[in-house]
UniProtKB/TrEMBL annotation:
Family: Belongs to the short-chain dehydrogenases/reductases (SDR) family.
InterPro entries registered for this protein in UniProt: KR_dom, NAD(P)-bd_dom_sf, SDR_fam
Protein name: 3-oxoacyl-[acyl-carrier protein] reductase
Superkingdom of this protein's organism: Bacteria
SMART domains with a match to the protein in the record: PKS_KR
Ranges of residues in domain Ketoreductase: 7-185
Pfam families: adh_short_C2
Keywords: Oxidoreductase
Organism: Williamsia serinedens
Hydrolase keyword on record: no
Amino acid sequence: MTTLLPDAAIVTGASRSIGRAIAERLARDGRPVVVGYAHRADEAAVTVRAIAEFGGRAVAVGGDVADGDTAARLFDAADAEFGGAAVLVANAGVSVLGPIATYDDDAYDRVFDASARGTFRCLRAAAARLADHGRVVTVSSTAVATATPGMGVYLAAKAAVETMTRVAAKELAPRGITVNAVAPGLVRSEMFADGKTAEELAAIARSAPRTRLGEITEIADAVSLLTAPDASWISGQVIRVNGGVA
């Protein structure tokens, strides 16, 4: 078993929803957290306050992970505030849905910048600056495995995330760093609920194997497992956290 130093976790897209749940869970695990956010400074501050309320430590750092210097600034904050980072959770992403035949070029750029480019830049920074025997978790989607119509561009970006995850796991293995992805499915998140009525959400829940939607805290639980010291032999995997949907 490898014992990690009590260094910080960096969580991107942590101002709300799944990202906030992950940040709070890792803080409860005893890690100080760098709360990364792109635009919602007020909501990132809510995440920091929530962590402080139960005795955790956190600092918010703004910036789009698709921009060149944001990943470096996240690691700079971890170094300055907490003595370095042992965990990176690359959660930031944008969902713009629609059929490939009518998909907008600007939407394509937004989706790939946030998920694929942003994850790439976070992985590149982690390769240089994450502590040895650290943990990296990226975020994909269960729908990559089901090729859901109307999600082609979004899922293509997430498929890129999964491929980079598997390759990075091999490249960082000599330093004892594990790299895995979680792939949520049918989760009661803001992104999933966007544009759906309560009746539509209820129907989706009834169609699931366990006749309910997952909770964002259950995604955070999976990330906690993958970032734990006892997870040292799990690497290069895509863990589909979906209640048995696929």
